[in-house]
Amino acid sequence: MSMTTRTDDTPVPVPHAADSHELIRVHGARENNLRNVTVEIPKRRLTVFTGVSGSGKSSLVFDTIAAESQRLINETYSAFVQGFMPTLARPDVDVLDGLTTAIIVDQQRMGADPRSTVGTATDANAMLRILFSRLGTPHIGSPKAFSFNVASISGAGAVTLERGGKQVKERREFSITGGMCPRCEGRGTVTDIDLTQLYDADKSLNEGALTIPGYKPGGWNHRLYTESGLYDPDKPIRTFSKQQLDDFLYREPTRMKIAGINMTYEGLVPRIQKSMLAKDREAMQPHIREFVDRAVTFTTCPDCAGTRLSEAARSSKIKGISIADACAMQISDLAVWVRELDEPSVAPLLASLRDTLDSFVEIGLGYLSLDRPAGTLSGGEAQRTKMIRHLGSSLTDVTYVFDEPTAGLHPHDIRRMNDLLLRLRDKGNTVLVVEHKPEVIAIADHVVDLGPGAGTAGGTVCFEGTVAGLRAARTLTGRHLDDRAALKDTVRDPSGALEIRGATTHNLKGVDVDIPLGVLTVVTGVAGSGKSSLVRGSVPAGAGVVFVDQAPIRGSRRSNPATYTGLLEPVRKAFAKANGVKPALFSANSEGACPACNGAGVVYTDLAIMAGVATTCEECEGRRFDASVLEYRLGGRDISEVLAMTVEQAEEFFGSGEGRTPAAHRILRNLADVGLGYLTLGQPLTTLSGGERQRLKLATHMTDKGGIYVLDEPTTGLHLADVEQLLGLLDRLVDAGKSVIVIEHHQAVMAHADWIIDLGPGAGHDGGRIVFEGTPAELVAARSTITGEHLAEYVGR
Question: Which parts of the sequence belong to the ABC transporter domain (predicted)?
């Protein structure tokens, strides 16, 4: 460090030039709804971004700062390597300065593949496989022999070698010993198809015997069978001979000419298995999922008992424990077992495995097991699982970006999460957190509050500074930061009870409970205590029960709130009726699409390793429809103008006057009820935040005819100010005669409940029991559980 002198000749240290880059500077950010946002974020500090859902938090943090950091890192690779990586466009921002390497820890669900488990998604399974290949007795082979993703194969054949200037052919044999169960192919479950759900045996194929989605008469899936020539398509399937029925259902893939085109014919059952059953159930479209649930039964594989592993892999043991036993253990128990192993030959491996398992416990996921399918983790569990590999990292001066890390966490666990965030910061990292919980906002070094509203009413910085400054600033977040819901003076009386007896799903220990009906019931408890197992596993699905879970909404940029909620259907019919034309004209994905951009509104230009360019279509000017379609009007508006309306504007438009459409108005009223009045009807689903997507799903299910509503953590992604609106919505549902069961950690929802069922006392095998049943006031007075302690502290008792 160089020195300069004051007038009194005292030397003054001059900062090194490298120490002057202490800020991440963002100037003129315009991603999504951001309106020329300028903000300066201190490095090596914990900065929390707040604001109502849809105010622009994710657009600033994820789509601008983190996205540009990743794009710049990708550009450091060679053009050859970049060709294998996703191309990222530069965010719409004037200046981004002072960026560091960004590590994104978001709530995207992990591994839709059925073979992905908690163990395979982390390094734990890989280390266990090596451990058993070294210490397991009997010794059965390399680590591959313990992997349920590797099949055992063997073969032989001639290979050509160059030897002494001559080509010589030699016979070679090879074999690979894998750990995959041959019966279920490493899935742990086998499927049995109910043939009666595939076709109506009393009908012929030409009469529409097939009842499978996508197999309608006239389509290629249908013509494959009607024009194969293997059987008469005009004969009822019941009259097929044994050979014809076998060809129809089970024939191996065969090349043949159908309708003059070379195609591969395959029996109906293997075709269904490959096209539908190979996918993760949660990744299916709703109508496909409904068909699969009806036609297919998934049962535990009888050969491997659901462990996914071959008999040989299960036979090799360390101190009486096989790798299947180890993966089935609760991780906290597995950590104890691994700590008891003392083998100098694998000491480094054991140390690394202990650290990984201890991280699971430390982060509050000790109740999981390594064989838990990754697709069954909640968004919060998935995010914390991704955090594990970063906890022991030696990297510093990294920017960690978190998306609501407290999602799915009990107040008791939020304190532990806060400690982890502070530990990452104290190692010299920049931590950026998008969060609504006041407990996390309270530990921030710096707060950026966006708003003032959502959608077009947001996108500006309302406040930047300390937590104390936020309280004094009187922004929407500042005003609600110290909000506390009060306990009800009186609670509703139940109209009946839903009896659950002997519930044993997952970690439940023979639970007997009566869930009151006709009231607002909150099921709570620490993460992993058995809440979802009790409600989802014991409340009978079917008529009268509406489940609104946290499964993500999947959709392309062509999907929007109008298409997802079914709003576009009555709107198209109203336009068609008013103009005397077909409804299909008013779909940008059908006959009404602009021919130049195929209804996308933009034209994409692929630039290989460079980021692709999307330009507004010159023909339709981004309106997505053919010019002739825009001549047709309803209430003075064309279809593109309707899709450009906000929910509030459309509710008024379809509620009265020439545009009056009761079916559309009902859907719009539900969207407004869940706080999405600011959304534009044609806004792509890909631009919605997590909280907006969940409320969109809730609004869609509100039209379902059901007497019992089961909501899984509906406050996820909700701003403090929106929680009050959600409570009002829940009250309206109950007052309308519905029974509402909410799985929730938020103290405001607990305080507002008529009845609380608290599970615990711990997670995993330490939970699974009812530790309290009663009113919120009784829980606060008793303070007999962890939940009671935190709720009493929350309401100030």
Answer: 182-477, 485-786
For residues 82 and 94, give the distance between their C-alpha atoms in angstroms, rounded to a whole number.
25
Give me the sign of the Cα torsion angle 312, 318, 321, 325.
Answer: negative
**What pLDDT does residue 220 have?**
83
According to DSSP, residue 611 is labeled E
The pLDDT value recorded for residue 280 is 62
Per DSSP (E only), the strands in 333-445 are 399-403, 430-434
Distance CA 93, CA 71 (A): 14
Residues in the chain, pLDDT under 70: 1-12, 109, 111-112, 278-284, 542-543, 550-552, 554-555, 606-613, 689-691, 797
Q: Which DSSP letter does residue 56 get?
A: S
Report the C-alpha gap between 262 and 780 in whole angstroms. Answer: 72
Structure tokens at 295: 């036609």
DSSP letter string, 103-160? EEE--PPP--STT-BHHHHSSHHHHHHHHHHHH-BS---SGGGG-TTS--EEEEEEEE
Mind giving me the DSSP string for 252-307? Answer: PPEEEEETTEEEEE--HHHHHIIIIITS-GGGS-HHHHHHHHHHEEEEE-TTTTTS
Instruction: Give 221's contacts (C-beta < 8 A, 6+ positions apart).
Output: 212, 214, 215
The per-residue pLDDT for range 575-619, each reduced to its tens digit, is 999 999 999 999 998 889 999 999 988 887 766 555 666 788 989
Q: What is the DSSP string of 214-250?
A: T--TTSHHHHHHHTSSSS-TTSBGGG--HHHHHHHHH
What tokens were used for 505?
A: 């799903």
Cα–Cα dist 85/231, whole Å: 48
30 is written with which tokens?
A: 């315009």
| CB 117 within 8 Å of CB 374 | yes
Q: Which residue has the tokens 């002739």?
A: 628
Q: Are 267 and 249 in contact (CB under 8 A)?
A: yes
Q: Return the H-helix or E-strand segment holding 615.
A: strand 610-616
The Cα 60–Cα 427 span in angstroms is 25
CB 476 within 8 A of CB 482: no
Question: What is d(CA 275, CA 262) in angstroms, rounded to the nearest whole number?
Answer: 20
- Whole-angstrom distance, CA of residue 576 vs CA of residue 584: 8
| Residue 5 identity (one-letter amino acid) | T
DSSP character string of 618-685: TTTTT--B-TTGGG--BTTB-HHHHHTSBHHHHHHHTTSGGG--HHHHHHHHHHHHTT-TT-BTT--G
pLDDT at 5: 56
Alpha-carbon gap, residue 677 to 725, rounded angstroms: 12
Cβ-based neighbour number of residue 86 at 10 Å: 8
Q: Which of 675, 677, 655 is nearest to 665 (CA)?
A: 655
List of residues 6+ apart from 275 with CB closer than 8 A: none
For 367, the token pair is 């109740």
Give which of 717, 680, 725 is closest to 57, Cα–Cα. Answer: 717
Q: How many CA atoms within 13 Å lie on the side-chain side of 759?
A: 33
The structure's pTM equals 0.81
> Which string of b and e fits 348-384 if b means at least 16 CB within 10 Å?
ebbeebeebbbbbbebbbbbbbbbbbbbebbbbbbbb
pLDDT at 8: 61
Q: Quick one: DSSP state of residue 203?
A: S
pLDDT tens, 206-262?
998 998 888 888 888 888 899 888 999 999 999 999 999 999 999 999 988 887 888
Q: How far apart are CA 729 and CA 672, in angstroms?
A: 11
pLDDT at res. 4: 58
The sign of the torsion formed by the CA atoms of 315, 317, 320, 322 equals negative
Residue 69's pLDDT is what?
95
Residue 660: CB atoms within 10 A of its CB come to: 14
